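Example: AAA domain-containing protein.
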Amino acid sequence: MDLGEFRNLIAAVRGEIGKAVQGQDAIIDLVLISIFAGGHCLVEGPPGTAKTLLARSVSAAMALQYRRIQFTPDLMPGDVLGVNLFNFQTNQFHLTKGPVFTDILLADEINRAPPKTQSALLQAMNERMVTLDGTDYSLGPDFFVLATQNPIEQQGTYPLPEAQLDRFLFKLVVDFPSRDTEIAILSKHATQALKSDLRNAGIRPLVTSAALAEGRALIDAIRLDNTILTYIVDLVRATRSDPDILYGASTRAADAVASAVRVRAAFEGRDYGLPDDVQALLVPALRHRIVLSPSAEIDGRTPDEVLRNIMNRVDAPR
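Written out as structure tokens, the predicted fold is:
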């Protein structure tokens, strides 16, 4: 596979996902970038904005195993990871694997579970393995977490700690679709049941595990110019000295942005990154990795606004 073939594959995958998810092209692109960059995604938005449908559609476009966990206040770590159960017939312990043993994991409404259960994903997301009773179990190189959360409700929810948020490559904010898109969605559902099976959308699984590995090999071969790397580092370091930010982004954040830039370049059929790639990816990659100062919060500023102000101040390479 060369860059041209890879670009055509991504275009075809976008089209397949678009059969079910309408009006979210930018979000779809960022989810695909996260998958090929080996990262994870946190999707935030009000109810009824196709967050779960997006995850199911992405999984349908890939020939990979998919599982879903509905996070609830009574969910325990063992419900996510699995547990060793004693078999009285063999007098041995047998591992009953949890839903985390998959390729694509949808952690639905992750902020409804307590921190103890949320932390069950920390090792899985960072190392792609889990440790149960002292034994390590690999989850495979394709393991990807797409978590959703509802920002509206506060009762019965547990905000994700900074250490957990830092495991996500992107935090994507899903808003309501445009008026024309909503009309198109309603027109489509006029001819089929609102809760029809996703398979009726006709999404074809185009990305196999082998194709994913080939794509990542192409991306790894893309080398970023020192000017681009310096630009990324300067932007990240600027978050640590900005008066509107209490805690800035980490070195892991800078590395995440660089990885995402390589993927975006490959999506466009380029073997080099551009400042435009950095600017397009900086906000979704850092909005969840910074903590605003109390004065900025009192003034009503948002992480997105603060990050855009930093981009306006830091000179881009030419």
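Residues 223-313 form a domain with the Helicase, Ruva Protein; domain 3 fold (CATH 1.10.8.80).
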